[in-house]
Design goal:
The complex is a heterodimer of chains A (about 600) and B (about 675). With about 600 residues, chain A is an alpha+beta fold. Chain A is built from 15 helices and 22 strands. Chain A folds into four domains: about 55-155 and about 250-370 and about 455-460, Zn peptidases (Aminopeptidase, 3-Layer(aba) Sandwich), CATH 3.40.630.10; about 180-245 and about 405-435, no CATH class; about 380-405, no CATH class; about 465-590, Immunoglobulins (Immunoglobulin-like, Sandwich). Helices cover about 25% and strands about 25% of the residues of chain A. Chain A is elongated. The model of chain A is unreliable at about 15-20 (pLDDT under 50). Chain B has about 675 residues and is of the alpha+beta class. Among the domains of chain B are: about 135-155 and about 230-305 and about 385-490 and about 540-565, no CATH class; about 570-675, Immunoglobulins (Immunoglobulin-like), CATH 2.60.40.10. Chain B has helices at about 1-25, 30-45, 95-110, 115-120, 135, 260-270, 300-305, 340-345, 390-405, 420-430, 445-450, 500-510, 550-565, 600-605, and strands at about 50-55, 65-70, 80-85, 125-130, 180, 190, 200, 210-215, 275-280, 435, 515-525, 530-535, 570-580, 585-595, 615, 625, 630-635, 645-650, 660-665, 670-675. Chain B has a six-stranded mixed beta sheet with strand order 1-2-4-3-9-10, sandwiched between helices. A four-stranded antiparallel beta sheet of chain B has the order 8-5-12-11. A four-stranded antiparallel beta sheet of chain B has the order 13-14-18-16, with no helix packed on it. The chains are: A alpha+beta (about 600), B alpha+beta (about 675). Chains A and B meet through helix 8, strand 11, helix 9, strand 17 and helix 14 of A and helix 6 and helix 8 of B.
Chain lengths: ~600, ~675
């Protein structure tokens, strides 16, 4: 009997431990995370995909892994969807689409995507705003839209990883990608080649720092020749490294303001020629619930919006208002980042991704240029010091200082001897690794991920969301009622961008009135219900043939309430519904007596 | 003696018989199934000469056929300059399909004629006879309307319903024409010069309109517009990238949105040897001698279609900066009737006035001055040219005048503005001489007839083949396939006076006894009451009688051969070596273009669409001691008629070595030649 009790007690205890492991085994008040991920190292395509699969396995209800197609090299272009099925289907909720790494070397957006899904899931149910976002919105993430370029960048430092891997004949010899740079000494970095020619060279070692090679001044002699990037003449045409992988710009291949190669270099022969671009365009075009878009690039610290080219013309004022509010708050969330327009702030881009999503699909879109060199030495004091040319952190020497004192020499490749097949005895080195300058130092990656995620979640929260107040019916006698309907969009983003409304790129919002035996005699906009009751004034009669199904081509702008007044003849229940593809569907019923 | 001849003779007989049957085929318009049978028959009849492939399948699972016609011997076809003949981008341009088939048929059946053989030995002809089979098939539907679009469902008026308001045949003739309706706001009246046509009332002449014009049909979705969202969606000739008509009718959701468009583009990228394009369809830059027609449509149809212009515009409500208290007419001539009582009820008992005021619910945050700029240097934005570059324009004029001589066509029929047209891609982006023609003509004006040589090509009279070589002098006139077309009253080619095209088409139909116009007749419209239905029959004004096909086909086969004879022809003119002793040799080469066209158009060079000519000495790079590099690229075009480039190398080698030179011009072929060192 006693044994039995003991066993029972043990079982109970074990049950307790299993049921509430934190209560028993953890003393820390800080949250324990379910999935442990690295945000202090860079992931190649496979590692990145593996981590997303771990998140999907840990949070199977919310996180789904899909694919929007295959890359040129046959890799899946992973699509990660975050959706709470209990709060509605994907298409019934406004979606935030997030893409990263369209340029293969601009990798850190992939880590932001990973961080975003991880953060949303680990904090769902713990932080109310995160819970609400996951419940109200859908997230579509393409952590690398250029998986080939990312993998190439992570495997072979240097080279033309910006491009994708559709073959391109850079040197016009009829052969494709036949003379790439070669990692001759197999150390994972495409370095520079220098040859020691005492007294006969055009370069010398700088007195300021032995790592710096400088051209010799006129009339003096140097000891070194610089012979370009590490490589050999693979195709025997007499030139070295002249036909690297790919050789185009995947972010110039979208079908809005696409211009041929000679107007927009890197555009390829026609829009959507690249399988990655086509896959993404088809996915976006078939998901009209996408209302916001972020495309992570690097670098420079910018929150960019379109248009990419001056000739496209500035966006309509309503759209600019929404962009400005989001962008200005973005500058507050992201120190050292500046909100600007692509063509005027950066440079002209034709056929860019966010021009297509804004102009072609009516999606409010930003592109963050991640990481700004100002973030190495951030305090005002250090900034002042940097203006002194003698300072060890003066601009010409600051990266060497940073590499010595903060990264312990991790980033600079020292010169090492090598026997080149055609150049003879040379040295390879003098290069910075790919993990410097355009990406943050590893120890600063997590902050970059968090702040950029925070901006994108802010945008996701400000996607359109329509609300409808109680519908009020006011009898006028003779079986006629005035029916007042207030539709509002309390968010910053319009349900339909003004530009999209003018160009018919988004299905109009549709306001329907249904009732068994009612007839709509007229419908009009009024300023608002209460003013109307005091001073009955109509602003505009709605001049559409079918007043039971009113089209609003430009939807409801951000932070706006539209009030409509119907004149309805008949009796019985009347249901008014506002249906917006990006702002959701709301309806109310009122009884006419 | 026995075997081969016995086999050969019956085979020849069969060929001849097939030839005769083939000739008869070009007296009718062919469905997709018949077109498929024809191209398959051609491929089967000459397996060595003809290769049949498909660009892929359309939405409705029809193949986009490509015929490759080339002599099998010699340089592989992919390395020879090629002519691409393509037709039927707009679904209702079916005549072009027939011309393309006729060109293919002619080349295959006359492959042994010297001028055809010369073409097929040195070049390749690719023929895509039907780019828009899903749209073209509507020509054989029981209910006919001028359908230009492919099968992609498009919500034309963007009202959340797709393809919900197509036409209805109210008078039961199986044709969709035009409705004229007596309406208070009507702006058209019967044209006093031709009672079949209508003209817009001119208030300056004291004219008052009587009729409103609509397409034949009903307002199926009750939005106030008739036939504003018929089945189908995209005219492929408005889906290419040059001067793409963003957000305009029948242009597609975005450029290259259609799989047909992208399949052809993908194919072209794989066929960089295409050195000239000949498109048959609704655009013209040949009849007008190299000038690109800006478009000339039937006014009657344009006026009826204008009734749906407002369909995609209703429902734009001011959001910021004030709504105006004015009613915008809903379009479609369907104004709402608002009675004074309704107004009173709307305004409330106190009455009221339409207000000029802010948007309902107030404005959002005021639009601040947009974003700052950083002062980075902006790249100046370049724009693409929209007319041929001067050196190319001269070649275009020349080809245009030869076209007029060879076909006798002087007056283009209906055309549409080339926005997003395929042939424009051919020149402006693909960089090759690119032409388009409807392939038939209207009688020219008497004034214009004096400009060129004109001979009426009677039945069989247009069949003479002009020499395929450039500069041939023989001009065979082809004029509409029937005698007597020339000289009838027409209209000024440059003039765009209203009704000018309509009248010219009617006069041509009358003269040719073409039953192409439905006389106006009263019909009871289910919604509008009594209306009159009439107007041009679908396809009748865009496709001439099938009897014209055979002869026009021959003339265009001749023209295709002429185009193929103009290709650049880049060859090694000389390649010699001299020894200097001590194992040093001087190698000299001259590369010349013996064709007519330069190795690239000026636009092809500017657009970097045509590769520079490659000249490569096949020796180890480090054996070249001086002179040209191992690999040279001739970046400027080599002109035709003997344009030359010279190269010289000093190499280290030994007597008896065989040194090879390789040249390759993307549009002008190439050659490899060796010299043995002495």
């Amino acid at each position: 009997m006693k044994t039995k009790t003991l066993v029972l007690f043990a079982v109970l205890l074990a049950g307790l431990v299993l049921a509430a492991p934190q209560a028993v085994s953890q003393k820390s008040s800080d949250p324990q995370f379910k999935v442990k991920l690295d945000f202090n190292r860079w992931h190649d395509t496979e590692e990145l995909y593996a981590d997303f699969r771990r998140l999907a396995a840990a949070f199977p209800k919310f996180v789904k892994i899909g694919s929007i197609g295959k890359s040129a090299d046959g890799r899946d272009i992973m699509l990660v969807t975050v959706n709470n099925p209990d709060t509605g289907s994907e298409l019934s909720k406004a979606a935030m689409a997030i893409e990263a790494n369209v340029h293969g070397n601009e990798i850190q957006g992939g880590e932001i995507c990973l961080y975003t899904v991880w953060y949303l899931m680990e904090n769902y149910g713990r932080l109310a705003p995160i819970t609400r976002l996951v419940d109200e919105r859908v997230f579509y993430l393409i952590p690398t839209i250029n998986p080939d370029g990312r993998q190439y960048f992570m495997e072979v430092a240097g080279g033309n990883a910006r491009s994708g891997h559709v073959p391109f004949d850079n040197d016009n010899d009829g052969l494709f990608d036949e003379d790439l740079p070669n990692d001759l000494n197999g150390n994972g970095v495409i370095e520079q080649i220098r040859k020691y020619v005492p007294g006969k060279g055009n370069y010398r070692i700088s007195l300021a720092d032995p790592r710096i090679m400088e051209p010799v001044p006129y009339g003096e002699k140097g000891d070194y020749l610089l012979l370009g990037q590490e490589g050999i003449d693979d195709d025997g045409d007499g030139q070295v490294n002249e036909d690297d992988l790919g050789g185009y710009d995947p972010n110039r291949n979208y079908p809005s303001d696409w211009q041929p190669n000679y107007i927009q270099s890197g555009a390829m022969d026609y829009p959507m020629q690249l399988p990655e671009t086509r896959g993404e365009v088809e996915f976006f075009a078939s998901h009209p619930n996408i209302a916001g878009f972020q495309s992570y690039h690097n670098n420079g610290g910018m929150i960019l919006r379109g248009p990419g080219s001056e000739a496209t013309g500035e966006y309509p004022a309503t759209d600019v208002t929404a962009y400005d509010e989001l962008g200005k708050n973005g500058e507050r969330i992201l120190p050292f980042y500046e909100y600007m327009v692509i063509w005027s702030g950066l440079y002209t881009v034709h056929g860019g991704g966010i021009d297509f999503t804004n102009d072609g699909l009516g999606i409010l879109s930003f592109s963050n240029e991640l990481w700004n060199g100002e973030q190495y030495f951030t305090s005002p004091e250090l900034k002042t010091q940097q203006q002194d040319p003698a300072s060890p952190i003066a601009p010409s020497r600051s990266r060497y200082f940073f590499d010595d004192k903060l990264e312990f020499g991790d980033q600079f490749m020292e010169w090492t001897p090598f026997k080149h097949p055609t150049y003879g005895d040379v040295e390879l080195g003098g290069s910075w690794k790919k993990t410097t300058s355009r990406v943050p130092p590893r120890f600063m990656l997590e902050e970059l991920c968090h702040r950029n995620m925070a901006f994108t979640l802010y945008q996701a929260d400000e996607l359109p969301q329509v609300k409808m107040d109680e519908v009020e019916a006011q009898p006028l006698g003779g079986g006629v009622h005035r029916v007042f309907v207030e539709v509002s969009n309390p968010k910053v983003t319009p349900t339909i961008l003004e530009k999209a409304g003018r160009n018919n790129t988004v299905r109009p919002d549709i306001l329907t009135l249904e009732g068994k035996s009612v007839e709509v005699i007229a419908a009009s906009w009024i300023a608002d219900r209460e003013s109307f009751k005091v001073n009955p004034t109509v602003t505009t009669l709605i001049d559409q043939k079918n007043l039971k199904r009113i089209l609003l081509r430009n939807g409801t702008p951000g932070k706006t309430t539209r009030t409509i007044m119907y004149l309805v003849k008949g009796a019985g229940p009347v249901t008014v519904k506002y249906d917006s593809v990006k702002g959701g569907v709301v309806s109310k019923t009122v009884d006419l007596r | 003696m026995k075997g081969p001849l016995r086999v050969l003779v019956p085979a020849l007989l069969i060929l001849i018989a097939a030839g005769t049957a083939g000739a008869q085929e070009f007296t009718k318009y062919h469905t997709y199934a018949e077109t498929t049978a024809i191209v398959q028959g051609l491929a089967k009849s000459a397996p060595g000469l003809v290769k049949l492939t498909s660009l892929g399948k359309t939405l409705e699972k029809r193949d986009l056929w490509v015929l490759e016609i080339a002599s099998p011997a010699g340089v592989p076809p992919a390395e020879r300059p090629a002519l691409l003949v393509a037709a039927n981008f707009a679904g209702d341009s079916v005549f072009g399909s027939e011309l393309a088939l006729a060109v293919a048929d002619y080349l295959v059946k006359n492959a042994s004629k010297p001028e055809v053989k010369a073409c097929l030995d040195n070049a390749v002809v690719y023929i895509v006879p039907r780019m828009n089979p899903d749209g073209a098939e509507a020509m054989w539907a029981s209910l006919k309307w001028d359908r230009r679009t492919n099968g992609t469902p498009v919500d034309d008026d963007n009202d959340g319903r797709t393809d919900e308001d197509g036409p209805e045949d109210l008078n039961g003739d199986g044709l969709i024409t035009v409705m004229r309706v007596v309406e208070p706001g009507g702006t058209y009246l019967v044209d006093p010069e031709d009672a079949r046509l209508l003209k817009k009332a001119d208030p300056k002449l004291g004219e008052k309109g009587v009729y409103a014009l609509y397409m034949e049909g009903r307002d199926n979705d009750g939005d106030g517009f008739i036939n504003e969202d018929p089945p189908g969606g995209v005219n492929l000739n408005r889906n290419f990238m040059h001067e793409y008509p963003y957000f305009k009718a029948e242009a597609g959701r975005f450029m290259a949105s259609e799989s047909e468009t992208r399949m052809l583009l993908a194919w072209l990228v794989q066929h960089r040897n295409v050195a000239a394009v000949l498109a048959f369809g609704e655009n013209d830059n040949l009849i007008a001698s190299g000038r690109t027609s800006s478009g000339r449509r039937l006014d009657l149809l344009a006026a009826a279609e204008a009734s749906i212009e407002g369909a995609g515009k209703t429902g734009i409500f001011p959001a910021l900066g004030g709504m105006r208290g004015m009613r915008i007419r809903g379009g479609g001539g369907m104004e709402m009737s608002i009675t004074p009582e309704i107004l009173t009820m709307l305004m409330g008992s106190g009455g009221g006035q339409f207000m000029m005021g802010p948007a309902p619910g107030g404005a959002g945050p005021q639009g601040q001055a947009a974003t700052q700029t950083t002062g980075r240097r902006n790249m100046p934005s370049r724009t693409a040219p929209t007319s041929p570059l001067a050196p190319d324009a001269e070649y275009f004029r020349l080809v245009g005048s030869r076209y007029a001589e060879m076909t006798g066509i002087r007056q283009a029929p209906l055309t549409i503005k080339p926005e997003g047209a395929f042939f424009q891609y051919g020149y402006y982006q693909f960089g090759v001489p690119s032409f388009s023609t409807p392939g038939w003509g209207l009688p020219e004006t008497p004034r214009a007839s004096g400009q060129g040589m004109m001979m009426a090509g009677g039945p069989g009279g247009g069949g003479q083949m002009p020499p395929a070589q450039a500069g041939g002098r023989s001009a065979t006139a082809f004029q509409g396939g029937r005698a007597g077309l020339a000289g009838t009253a027409g209209f000024d080619a440059a003039g765009d006076a209203p009704q000018a095209v309509d009248k010219a088409i009617l006069q041509w139909m009358d003269k040719e006894k073409i039953d192409g116009f439905v006389a106006w007749a009263k019909v009871k419209h289910p919604d509008l009451g009594e209306v009159e239905v009439g107007g041009f029959k679908p396809y009748a004004a865009t496709n001439p009688p099938a009897a014209m096909i055979a002869e026009a086909g021959k003339a265009h086969a001749a023209f295709a051969l002429y185009l193929a004879s103009l290709f650049p022809k880049v060859r090694i003119e000389s390649f010699d070596a001299t020894g200097h002793g001590g194992g040093i040799f001087r190698i000299k080469a001259v590369v010349a273009n013996h064709g007519f066209w330069p190795t690239s158009t000026a636009q092809g060079l500017q657009a970097q669409a045509v590769k520079p000519t490659l000249v490569q000495l096949q020796v180890a790079a480090d054996t070249i001691l001086s002179g040209s590099p191992k690999t040279s690229l001739i970046r400027q075009a080599l002109n035709g008629s003997g344009g030359r480039a010279e190269f010289e190398w000093l190499i280290k080698a030994k007597a008896g070595d065989r040194i090879t030179l390789k040249i390759a011009s993307q549009k002008g072929g190439g050659e490899t030649r060796a010299v043995v060192l002495k």
